[in-house]
Specification:
This protein is of the alpha+beta class and 368 residues long. The chain contains 15 helices and 10 strands. Helix 1 crosses helix 3 and helix 5 crosses helix 6. Bound molecules: adenosine-5'-triphosphate and manganese (II) ion (2 copies). One manganese (II) ion (MN) binds next to helix 11.
Length: 368
Amino acid sequence: EPEVPSFIASKVSQYSCQRKTTLNNYNKKFTDAFEIMAENYEFKENEIFCLEFLRAASVLKFLPFPVTRMKDIQGLPCMGDRVRDVIEEIIEEGESSRAKEVSNDERYKSFKQFTSVFGVGVKTSEKWYRMGLRTLEEVKADKTLKLSKMQKAGFLYYEDLISCVSKAEADAVSLIVKNTVCTFLPDALVTITGGFRRGKSTGHDIDFLITNPGPEEDDELLHKGLLLYCDIIESTFVKEQLPSRKVDAMDNFQKCFAILKLYQPRVNSNSYSTSKNFDMAEVKDWKAIRVDLVITPFEQYAYALLGWTGSRQFGRDLRRYATHEKKMILDNHALYDRRERIFLKAGSEEEIFTHLGLDYVEPWERNA
Ligand code: ATP
Ligand code: MN
Ligand code: MN
């Protein structure tokens, strides 16, 4: 029987930060089902079951071959009974009845719609669902609802925001952000993080990290009005504070969950459409794009870069690894060694991996 040489299931680490996971996923059939299951548990605020399916998905994304028999997953970590049941059914039937049930479930479908709006999370969705609301049309029609500023922007630019951001759009926005930042801070370093840094060709947003080398710190940058919508969250970082132990905690950087107006030159590829669109002024020549801007002090830059590059699962496992294997606490600001009671400084991601005793994992290998 053909076996993939040098692949030993029992040697696969339970931590995705000890695996190299590219975008090359041989097991999408399985991981898509797991992600539906995980999302449904997230909507039910069942973190344990949610993480169980996310971890399993991450292990299968790493496998260098497609799973075709139960024997293929023998010895792999994170393969609990609930996960195995789903795998077994997909192998035998081609699809998972549980995942199918979930995707047709009324509550799941409503939550999926609600959380697709910028500014709407599980808590708000829960509230709307309890009020008897089921679709976005019903939400929009309900004039008694008090929407936040963020949610209003989410509805206003909804169609643009649910369409994915392309690499070309990310590059165009990157130029704008870099140019704008540089007019205020000529020495600033602007880096794309998130999915695009991991090599993805599309994303739901574009993530930027901005730092200014040297002693100068500028907390005015975000207040200069370059954005369509901008919800500025001021820095809450306190010097010498211990890293957060919460696995999914927000960090304390000054940041901005923004919507940027990206002008796109209109291409007249079809002369019919231009003659039909009589009033040229009515044709929208821009697209609303979600952008996250994070400002970090220079000495925390490496930690912020590692945290904001993700993937989310990769970050979770880095923190879990630090806590359970190294008696250290890692967050987006710092790494604290609890035995030595010291903060470990790092000027690059490589140094952070070294502090943790881990082999370096390139950004495009962090698609866990
Ligand atoms: P997508 O293409 O869907 O945007 P992504 O991997 O870029 O995928 P994001 O949600 O943009 O996903 O997040 C990028 C990274 O930043 C993730 O690893 C996530 O853990 C981290 N992150 C996102 N939001 C926050 C936050 N509020 N505080 C701290 N870290 C965050
Ligand atoms: Mn992103
Ligand atoms: Mn983001």
